[in-house]
Amino acid sequence: PQIEVTFDIDANGIVNVSARDKGTGKEQQIVIQSSGGLSKDDIENMVRNAEIHAAEDKKKKDLIEILNQADGIIH
What we know:
Number of domains: 2
Largest sheet: 3 strands, antiparallel
Shape: flat
Structural class: alpha+beta
Oligomer: single chain
Number of helices: 1
Distance between the termini: 40 Å
């Protein structure tokens, strides 16, 4: 059977999952809610760290893209 599965995560961390059998059209859905999660402080720290390292991450990404282009030219 071919099953089409869809995941949707909203801003509150609630996950909606649906699965549909393409042959029969039968569909099932489930909602998963987090019993815990990250605190506001945890999220703010993660965002702050991402901002701090953004320039370094971009340099690494740019270097990898250049190396991939060079590799593509060689092969």
